[in-house]
Write a structure and sequence with these properties.
mainly beta, 40 strands, 14-stranded mixed β-sheet, 13% helix, Jelly Rolls, single chain
Length: 617
């Protein structure tokens, strides 16, 4: 009875262990995910391993799925799609894949993880040229296993024909005559693909063509550590363009550098690549928009060397910066350097340099100057060193003989400069114009010269402020004239607008062209602003008026417009007896008849202001 009881107890113990282990498996893998193992029956402790990893049972205790399988293909077949099932391939496990159907990864959403490290990782040997591992399901993850070519010309280690798959595997050639043609081959359905692959090959190999063969992949991230020979490329995009591909890693592809690391045979894929090329001994980068190129600091440095003087190319940054010997330029173009423009700016500001041969606060000199007299007039002289270094002073005049700079007498140097270097820069002050200058192009012309002659008539547009001020200081009044042609001598017409108050010193007309016979009287009136017209004189006939005949308002409203007795002369007895004072308003001429056939007159008014804003226009 004792032996029987022991067997019952052991069986009970195993059942409890099985139930507890299955519960732990399901908890580790998710609500429904299960865990499977791949271990050959010939493996050491296989029996104990199976005992420790019981089969899956239904609620009534019936075995539904084994937990341990001899081959990966069998374990895959036991998985349920998209339930998070995980297959652990035990360390030291080996399988031979002798055909295109010996191992099919055809269940979606499973994880295959090899245990062990280095040579202890699981090894899958492809023993026929047509041997391949077909991954035809989506969302497969396969890590930490070795795929090995044990016959020459293995066409495709893994073929991927569904999306969202991830691989982290090592591939190996057995020797230089036992190699993969391609280790990974995709179809257009293998989108969102992730590959991390290491390949151990031989530099004497001859059949490797495309280590990773991408056909129409969309969104792929590939990282490789490649050693061997691929005659076309380590990563080759061909047949159908791939899109959004990023490639990184370390490349040692035979004796070639860069040209056969990544190749887009379609010519229309979109991709980027960066990594280290062992043959080139340098990092590189590039992509669909730019050919792969070594990230070589020496190449960058070469682009920073000084270009030839006045080079007109516009390829590198150095071409834009230029050379110290570039000629100054003063006109913007598309072929000149920054240095040329800077020289032009300096030359345009610093007009000349030299060294004083005479030190003076008022008349320093440089006998080396050869420019004409007054060449530097209005420019600014600046010593660069010495007691008054950088003190700017205006050059009033320059004498060729002796190279003498006469400075503005009101602002000479504050001390003698010494026999130091100097510069001449553009002028900051306007010099005084010539006396009575008629020019009107600079502000100085409007201000004038202290020697300008007084002007008593403000009408001319060529007189300076100094000349007009002198006229005011001499007591002269203001004069305004209006030329009347024959056609103007008709009706009532406003001739002057007065802003008062003003004192009228003289008011009348001068005949400048003989008037023909024919009755036509003339009088002058004033209409104050807001008031009625008032005659300033009576009417006088202007018919047959001789040239230079004067007509005059004598200041008495009842008196007719005075026609002088002598042509061109206003006699003492005919002069204005009292001044007229006018407020705001208008002065008008009133003709009684139609315009004469010919003749001309000048209407004049002499006046002085009685207020600060008074004017006659």
């Amino acid at each position: 009875m004792g032996n029987f009881e022991e067997k019952i107890a052991e069986a009970t113990k195993r059942e409890l262990k099985s139930a507890r282990y299955q519960s732990l498996q399901q908890h580790a893998a998710g609500k429904t995910g299960r865990v499977f193992y791949v271990l050959k029956t010939s493996a050491t402790n296989y029996t104990q391993f199976v005992e420790d990893h019981p089969d899956y049972k239904s609620a009534d205790g019936v075995v539904t799925t084994a937990a341990v399988y001899n081959t990966l293909d069998a374990a895959v077949g036991a998985c349920t799609a998209n339930q998070g099932d995980t297959i652990y391939v035990m360390a030291g496990h080996t399988e031979t894949i002798a055909s295109a159907t010996a191992l099919a990864i055809d269940v979606a959403g499973i994880n295959i993880i090899g245990l062990g490290s280095g040579n202890d990782r699981p090894v899958f040997s492809l023993s026929a040229t047509t041997s391949t591992i077909a991954v035809s399901a989506a969302s497969v993850v396969w890590k930490n296993c070795i795929l090995k070519a044990t016959i020459n010309n293995v066409a495709a280690g893994i073929t991927v024909s569904d999306a969202n798959c991830t691989f982290d595997l090592e591939t190996q050639d057995t020797d230089a005559t036992t190699e993969f043609i391609s280790a990974f081959v995709t179809t257009t359905a293998a989108n969102r693909l992730t590959i991390k692959a290491k390949h151990i090959g031989f530099l004497a190999g001859a059949v490797g063509t495309r280590y990773i063969d991408l056909v129409g992949a969309e969104t792929a991230n590939i990282d490789v550590d490649y050693f061997g020979v691929s005659s076309v490329a380590v990563v080759n995009m061909r047949t159908t363009a791939s899109d959004n591909v990023r490639i990184t890693g370390k490349f040692h592809n035979g004796t070639t550098n860069l040209t056969k690391d990544v190749v887009d045979t379609t010519g229309t894929s979109t991709w980027s690549a960066e990594g280290f090329d062992v043959v080139a001994g340098a990092n590189f980068s590039g992509g669909s928009g730019a050919a792969l190129a070594v990230d070589d600091a020496s190449a960058i440095a070469a682009q920073l060397t000084v270009p030839s003087a006045d080079v007109s190319t516009n390829t590198n940054e150095r071409d834009v910066i230029g050379n110290k010997t570039d000629a100054a330029t003063y006109t913007p173009t598309t072929t000149k350097s920054l240095m040329a423009y800077l020289k032009g700016l300096v030359n345009g500001t610093i007009l000349a340099t030299g060294t004083f041969t005479t030190s003076s606060a008022t008349v320093p000199a440089d006998t080396g100057r050869t420019e004409a007299n007054d060449y530097w007039e209005g420019c600014v002289l600046i010593p660069l060193t010495g007691a008054i270094a950088l003190q700017p002073r205006v050059i009033a005049s320059f004498a060729n003989t002796g190279g003498i700079f006469t400075l503005d007498s009101d602002r000479p140097f504050t001390a003698v400069p010494g026999l130091v270097t100097y510069i001449i820069v553009r002028g900051q002050d306007a010099t005084v114009p010539a006396a009575d200058s008629t020019a009107n192009t600079m502000s100085a012309h409007a201000v004038g010269n202290k020697t300008d002659a007084a002007v008593t008539i403000p009408g001319p547009t060529t007189k300076s402020a100094i000349a007009i001020l002198k006229g005011l200081m001499t007591g002269a009044g203001y004069v305004k004239t209006v030329a009347l042609a024959a056609a103007d001598m008709v009706g009532t017409t406003t001739r002057f607008t007065v802003t008062g108050p003003i004192r009228v010193k003289s008011l009348g007309l001068l005949t400048t062209t003989v008037l023909p016979a024919g009755a036509n009287t003339l009088k002058i009136s004033f209409t104050p602003t807001g008031g009625a017209a008032t005659d300033l004189c009576g009417a006088t006939d202007t018919a047959s008026a001789a040239n230079q005949q004067l007509f005059y308002v004598d200041g008495t409203k009842a008196t007719g417009l005075v026609k002088t007795t002598d042509v061109g002369i206003l006699a003492a007895g005919q002069k204005q007896t009292s001044d007229l004072v006018l407020s705001d308003g208008v002065i008008q001429t009133i003709y009684s008849a139609g315009a004469p056939a010919s003749g001309a007159m000048t209407l004049f008014i002499g006046w002085e202001p009685l207020g600060g804003t008074a004017s006659v226009i």
